[in-house]
Amino acid sequence: MAVMNYAVDTATQQLAQNDVLAVKNAFLKYDIEEQARLLVVMPISEAIAVLHECPLKHVQHLLDRLDEMNEEKRMRHLASGLGLICSEAEPAGHYLKNTVMCHVRERIGWIIGLALLGIVSGLIISHYEDTLSQLVLLAVYMPVIAAAGGNTGSQAATLVVRALAMEEIRTRDWLAVLWKEFRVALVIAGVLAAVIIGRVIMFSDGSTLPIGIQLQDVAMAIGMAISIQVVLSTSIGGVLPMIARACKLDPAVLVSPVLASVVDITGMMIYFTTVNWMLGLS
């Protein structure tokens, strides 16, 4: 028991990096039951320091074991300190063992709040009724704007969530992530805009247009709007998981609904503002 006594005795002092690695190596020599019991008696800060150096899968096994030992409070403190879960974003325990109502209680607040926020999209569309009445063709490509923003944002968010889980990046790397996603978004936006412009020109030549406005102008306006939307959505999707992690919220639970609501609202604003500006519509 000398190693376990060493770990507990040194818990009263701030562990240096070398000490943390030494304790971690000794900690992992014990079976998972003894490791879980040691986590119960160690101070939170030192336990987090040791767990931070352990493989993520092993940490999850230890947290599950603490939950089985009725040490839910300790488990949540450790998980929150590691940035893995938060009581307001993810239920404790095994996914399949939790009841349906447990999952509903943890999710319903976000869903209802963001659904009400979605009303803003409808208000934006109603504000631009005159624009739609002048150029009905714009209504055809409204779903394209929303879908493009949602798809690109979700892709970026999924990749960042995975990178966070694999500890390839940390919240302090948000600027590097933003810069990378911004550059990726520029390339995707350019390609997607070219496809949409070609689609409008080739398949919308029978549409009724206001006097003085050419189909090529409409195509360019829609392409510009979708480019801006893709760049913005991808950038937001890249940093949103890191914001959630910094706020001790679970990115897997929070990011998708928040991103969908933000993309819907910003998409409609960008679409109508860009089209009105480029085509000179009232």
From TrEMBL:
For this chain, the family text in UniProt reads: Belongs to the SLC41A transporter family.
Q: Name one GO cellular component term.
A: membrane
The lineage's top-level taxon is Bacteria
Q: Which UniProt keywords apply?
A: Magnesium, Membrane, Transmembrane, Transmembrane helix, Transport
Its membrane topology is listed as:
Multi-pass membrane protein
Write down the InterPro entries for this protein, in alphabetical order: SLC41_membr_dom, SLC41_membr_dom_sf
Give start and end of each SLC41A/MgtE integral membrane domain: 142-273
User: SUPFAM superfamilies, from UniProt?
Assistant: MgtE membrane domain-like (SSF161093)
Membrane-spanning intervals of the chain: 108-128, 140-161, 182-203, 218-240, 252-272
For this protein's source organism, the top of the classification is:
Bacteria, Pseudomonadati, Pseudomonadota, Gammaproteobacteria, Vibrionales
Q: Where in the cell is it found?
A: Membrane
Q: Which Gene3D superfamilies match?
A: SLC41 divalent cation transporters, integral membrane domain
Which protein is depicted?
Mg2+ transporter mgtE
User: Where's it mainly located?
Assistant: membrane
Q: Name one GO molecular function term.
A: monoatomic cation transmembrane transporter activity
